[in-house]
Amino acid sequence: MAGRALPLNSREMKAFVTYIHSLSKDVPIDGKVEGRRLPTFKAPDRRADVAAGSTVYQENCVTCHGVDGAGLRSRPAGSAAGYTYPPLWGNDSFNNGAGMNRLLTASAFIKVTMPLGTEHGNSPDRGGLTDDEAYDVAAFIVSQARPTEKNLDRDYPARWNKPVDCAFPPYGDGAPADQHKYGPFSSLQKKHGTAYPKIEKGADSDRAFPSSSHRPWQLSRDSQVTNVGPPGRECLRGGLSVVRTPSQVRRGKRVKRVRGPECGWLICD
Q1: Of 164, 192, 220, which marks where a domain is finished?
Q2: Which of 93, 97, 98, 150 has the smallest count of CB within 10 Å of its CB?
Q3: pTM
Q4: Per-10-residue mean pLDDT for the chain, 269 residues long?
């Protein structure tokens, strides 16, 4: 959002942690909980229509979030009581670096949770919005003025890890800023999935990455590629395994940190 970090020992932080912990009562560790994550949102293959989104907003959102997107305060300003319904733009809203300022993320969230009363997974005939409506109203919301975050260019030093709907530079695919903000995204997603060279098992670092500018992981000259991948990436072209964290060391794998502008983990077994 656009707030400040709470001290770890503050009353508010303890309240947050206690509440979050209470949500896991009677839920098994690693158990599957319905509605835990946003489902994959298949965006319409077009640029989002901000004007159409404005109409969707007026018809479905103003009751809670207001005509001006300012939300509804729980108590008068200055009381620190927060909001009953949060602002969607303006000074108290999320900033331009927040996940909700990404069109695909906002569309997915709106699709399964909005308007108020929508149940997770509802179809349009049960009160939810269509994919097109969610996509367009999300575009209308992210088009509005909001707080700006500094140094956003540092958010994704590993360019392969930058979501295609991040609406701030730098971009590594040559597409214009407007497309990253409003779509269409299908061509960006295809390009994103093939942006790095295919690496074969057994390849040495010089053969895998002929020049340093094409090496997403800075391997030593005598390194042999067994399985390599950046943290958080499901897979890369070439079928190479991904090591997300050092926790895989505890699973009997020897793991070495590969340092460089695009850090990852190299399995050495």
Answers
A1: 192
A2: 150
A3: 0.68
A4: 80 94 85 78 95 97 96 86 93 93 95 81 68 97 95 80 88 89 93 53 40 38 40 34 38 41 40
